[in-house]
Amino acid sequence: MFARIGAWIRNRCGVRQDAGMTTAEYAVGTVAACGFAAVLYKVVTSDTVSAALESVIGKALDAQF
After folding, report:
1. What's the pLDDT score for residue 20?
2. Distance between alpha carbon 2 and the CA centroid of its chain, in Å?
3. Is-above-0.85 flag for pTM?
4. Quick check: 21 and 29 in contact, CB under 8 A?
5. pLDDT exceeds 90 at position 41
6. End-to-end Cα spacing for the chain
7. Residue 17: inside a domain
8. Residue 50 belongs to what domain range?
9. Which CA distances in Å does 26 have to 6, 30, 39, 42?
10. pLDDT for the residue numbered 40
11. How far is CA 42 from the centre of its chain?
12. pLDDT classification of 25: cutoffs 50, 70, 90
């Protein structure tokens, strides 16, 4: 009986439970992820980072065992 009263009150007051993200939140998250990926791509493909990565890989391949 009390469960019915609680459900009636929730329905009358317009109380909803939101579980998950809405479409706008997905859109903002997607745009943020794409922006982060673009910045990361630019950093990794820059001349300084490319030279550092080539140096590290070169030293690793020339290592003496």
Report:
1. 64
2. 42
3. no
4. yes
5. yes
6. 77
7. no
8. 32-65
9. 32, 6, 20, 24
10. 94
11. 18
12. confident
pLDDT of 15 strictly over 60? no
Is 38 inside any structural domain? yes
Spatial CB neighbours of 43, under 8 Å, sequence gap ≥ 6? 49
- How many structural domains is the chain composed of? 1
**% of the chain exceeding 70 in pLDDT:** 68
Q: Looking only at Cα atoms, what is the longest distance across the chain? A: 79
Give the confidence band of 48 by pLDDT, cuts at 50, 70, 90: very high
Give a yes or no: residue 42 inside a domain: yes
In the structure encoding, which two tokens stand for residue 60, read together?
A: 């690793």
Give domain status of residue 39, yes or no.
Answer: yes
Tell me how far CA of residue 36 lies from CA of 2, 16, 42, 50, in angstroms.
50, 33, 10, 19
